[in-house]
Q: What sequence folds into this?
C-alpha cells in the first residue's frame, strides 16, 4: 500500500535532533510530553515520526518490534471520559489491524471494542484498553500511544484519569509508553492533578521549537512540489527568515503567495505582504492568547528591547523553553519577524481602538451564517465556507471561536438584527434578535 502521508517521504534526517531525543526516550520506555507553541509544527513532526518506515531502526534501534498508536484528540466531539477511552481503544484496534500482529490478537481486540461500544461502560472500556495492550505486549511488541492535543482534555483531567493512565502502563508491565502533545506542560493543564513531583516520575518534558532552516526547506519543498507553486529561488532565504521555522506561518504564507500571484523583490516586501494577511494575523493572535499574563508582559518587554530581570525570566521560562524568545549575541529576540510585527501592530490598535468594518473572514462568516439563519452550522461546514483555501492545513477550534467572537462584537456595536448562538459541541446558529 502506498503511503499517502507526505511527511513519510521526508528524508530520515528531518528534525534529526528531535527525532533522536524522542527515539531515545522510547528506547528507555519513558513517557514524554511534547511541548511547543501552538501550531509550531509538532503535528508535522509527528506525522513524519509515526509514518516514516525507517524511524524505529534509525532512532530507537533496540531490536524490538514497535507499534505506534496515534490518538488524535481533535477527533473527540464530546470531551468526556468515556469518549476519550473508547477513542483510545478504537485507535489501538486500528493500529493493530494494520500491523503484523497475529490474527487472533487482532480478533481479541476487536471483540473487546465491540463489547465496549455495546455496553458504553467506562470501567469496562478502561479494562479493555489494559487487556489489549497487555495482549500486544505478550507478542513482544512494544506499544506507544500518542495522545495528540492532550491539552483539549483540560476540563476532564482528574486524579482518577491520571490514575487510570498509570494503571494502563502497569497492566502492560510498564512496557507501554505515552507521548502527550500540548502547547503547555501537564502541570499547566491541570496543576491540581499533575503536580511537579508526580509528573517528574510519570513523563519527561521535551520542547519542540521552530524548525531549523534545513528542516524548513524540506517542508517548503514538499508543499511547493505538491501544489505546483512557482517561487523564485532567489527569495527562498528571505522567505525562510520571515516565517522562521513556524510551520503554520509557512503553510499560510505559501497559500497567500499562490492566491496573489504577486512578485516580490525583497524580504521587506514579503514581510509587509504577509503581515496584512488576515489568516496570519489570526494565527499570531492565537499564539499571543495562549500565553499567561507574566509571559505576555515579559514578551512585550523583549519586543521593546527592555532589560529582563532574572525573576521575570524565571516566571516566563516557557518563552525561552519553547523557542518563542531566543538569545542572539547577548540580546533577547522574538523568534519571528512576523510575530514581532504583530506585537507592534497590537499595541497600535490597542491605542487607537478597533474598526467596526467587517474583515474579509468576518464577512465570509456572516454571509454563511445568514444564509443558514435558524439552522445549526457545524464547525466543519464553517471551515469549508470561511477557510476553504486552508482546510487541508487545519483550522483550530480557537480560530473559529475567535472569529465568531469578533463578529458578535461588531454585530452588537452596529445594533444588527442578528445574533449568533453557540450550539455546544457542534457549532453555531444565527437567529434574528
A:
Amino acid at each position: 500500500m502506498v503511503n499517502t502521508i507526505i511527511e513519510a517521504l521526508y528524508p530520515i534526517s528531518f528534525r534529526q535532533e528531535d527525532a533522536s531525543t524522542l527515539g531515545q526516550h522510547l528506547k528507555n520506555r519513558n513517557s514524554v510530553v511534547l511541548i511547543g507553541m501552538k501550531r509550531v509544527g509538532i503535528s508535522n513532526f509527528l506525522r513524519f515520526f509515526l509514518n516514516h518506515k525507517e524511524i524505529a531502526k534509525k532512532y530507537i534501534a533496540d531490536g524490538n518490534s514497535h507499534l505506534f498508536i496515534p490518538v488524535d484528540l481533535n477527533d473527540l466531539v464530546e470531551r468526556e471520559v468515556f469518549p476519550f477511552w473508547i477513542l483510545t481503544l478504537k485507535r489501538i484496534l486500528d493500529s493493530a489491524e494494520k500491523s503484523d500482529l497475529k490474527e487472533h490478537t487482532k480478533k481479541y481486540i476487536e471483540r473487546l471494542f465491540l463489547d465496549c461500544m455495546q455496553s458504553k461502560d467506562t470501567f469496562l472500556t478502561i479494562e479493555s484498553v489494559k487487556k489489549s495492550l497487555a495482549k500486544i505486549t505478550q507478542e513482544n511488541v512494544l506499544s506507544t500511544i500518542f495522545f495528540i492535543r492532550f491539552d483539549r482534555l483540560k476540563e476532564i483531567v482528574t486524579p482518577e484519569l491520571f490514575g487510570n493512565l498509570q494503571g494502563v502502563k502497569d497492566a502492560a508491565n510498564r512496557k507501554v509508553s505515552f507521548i502527550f502533545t500540548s502547547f503547555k506542560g501537564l502541570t499547566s493543564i491541570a496543576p491540581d492533578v499533575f503536580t511537579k513531583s508526580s509528573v517528574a516520575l510519570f513523563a519527561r518534558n521535551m520542547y519542540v521549537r521552530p524548525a531549523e532552516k534545513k528542516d524548513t526547506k524540506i517542508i517548503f519543498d514538499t508543499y511547493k512540489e505538491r501544489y505546483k507553486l512557482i517561487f523564485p529561488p532567489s527569495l527562498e532565504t528571505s522567505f525562510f527568515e520571515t516565517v522562521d521555522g513556524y510551520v503554520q506561518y509557512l503553510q499560510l504564507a505559501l497559500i497567500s503567495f499562490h492566491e496573489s500571484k504577486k512578485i516580490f523583490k525583497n524580504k521587506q516586501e514579503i514581510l509587509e505582504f504577509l503581515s496584512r494577511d488576515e489568516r496570519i494575523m489570526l494565527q499570531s493572535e492565537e499564539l499571543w492568547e495562549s500565553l499567561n499574563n507574566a509571559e505576555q508582559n515579559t514578551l512585550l518587554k523583549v519586543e521593546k528591547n527592555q532589560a529582563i530581570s532574572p525573576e521575570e525570566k524565571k516566571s516566563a521560562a516557557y518563552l525561552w523553553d519553547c523557542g518563542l524568545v531566543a538569545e542572539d549575541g547577548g540580546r533577547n529576540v522574538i523568534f519571528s519577524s512576523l510575530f514581532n510585527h504583530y506585537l507592534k501592530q497590537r499595541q497600535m490598535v490597542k491605542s487607537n481602538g478597533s474598526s467596526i468594518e467587517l474583515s474579509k473572514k468576518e464577512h465570509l462568516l456572516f454571509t454563511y451564517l445568514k444564509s443558514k439563519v435558524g439552522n445549526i452550522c457545524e464547525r466543519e461546514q464553517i471551515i469549508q465556507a470561511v477557510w476553504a483555501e486552508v482546510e487541508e492545513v487545519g483550522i483550530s477550534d480557537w480560530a473559529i471561536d475567535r472569529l465568531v467572537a469578533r463578529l458578535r462584537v461588531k454585530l452588537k456595536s452596529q445594533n444588527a438584527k442578528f445574533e449568533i448562538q453557540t450550539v455546544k459541541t457542534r457549532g453555531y446558529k444565527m437567529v434574528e434578535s
Residues 274 and 385 are 22 Å apart (CA to CA). The chain has four domains: 6-207, 213-272, 284-350, 360-432. The first helix runs from residue 16 to 27. The two ends are 54 Å apart (CA to CA).
